[in-house]
Amino acid sequence: MKKLIIIGGGNMGLAIASGITKKGVILKKNIFFIEKNPERINYLKKKKYFTADNLNKKGIETIILAVKPSDFNESMTVLKKSIRKSALVISILAGVKIKNIEQYLGRKQPIARIMPNTPCQIGEGISALTFNRNVTKEKKEAVKKIFTAIGKTVEVNESSLDIITAVSGSGPAYFCYFIESIIGAGNKLGLNQKLSGELVLQTAKGTLLLLSKNNLPPDKLRKSVTSSKGTTEAALKTFQKKGLDKIIFSGIKAAKERSIELGKLNK
Predict the structure, then answer these.
(1) Which pTM was predicted?
(2) Which CATH number fits domain 4-156: 2.60.40.10, 3.30.365.10, 3.40.50.720, 3.40.50.1370?
(3) Which of 2, 89, 139, 181 would you call most buried, defined as having the most Cβ atoms within 10 angstroms of its Cβ?
């Protein structure tokens, strides 16, 4: 990959640029951002990235679409006017299907659809990848190089992406919400906010590392912590009685349905 344009200079677009430059996938001088927010443009320039007003850059064969879904139609209008038919378009827009992009660019355009998540900002994310029939093996490898620079990747069927959006795309927010709730509970029960936060954050970090390093399934670790008639069992029985698993399922289902709705809005 010689040159890359990223349309949208938000957190995820910048995370991708940072990851691929650190891993040597592409030189920083060959990345160009198209961004309409003046403050964000200045921020990108401070980070030593180039910005462009349009797609008229020689040798651009890869374009990452990293705008909000609400800006999809405007971005596609710009792309349609100036994109090469051989250029690879990589979309990270939630809910926007490959066929929605093909309606603007035609069925011969190579298109990849990706669902990353926010831990990609520190190289610890996971991205689900899917491709249309025009993406060659060489271009697939280029996409995988980009997203393995910011975490793990899995290749999936596009039909799974609305669920994946709900599970891993939105997942970091669920973990944060649960962490907030435990910190708040500790505070209400008598701990100061700072101490409660320190205890909970380190417990969350340590638990995830324990699962990962020992390749443990979560239920096995949970059971090893849960003594009969002990404090952990008392909490878990309360969660079960209150239907926490059903609440979590309902929330993730709502996220999946919203992903489907976003796709319909951008037809």
Answers:
(1) 0.88
(2) 3.40.50.720
(3) 89
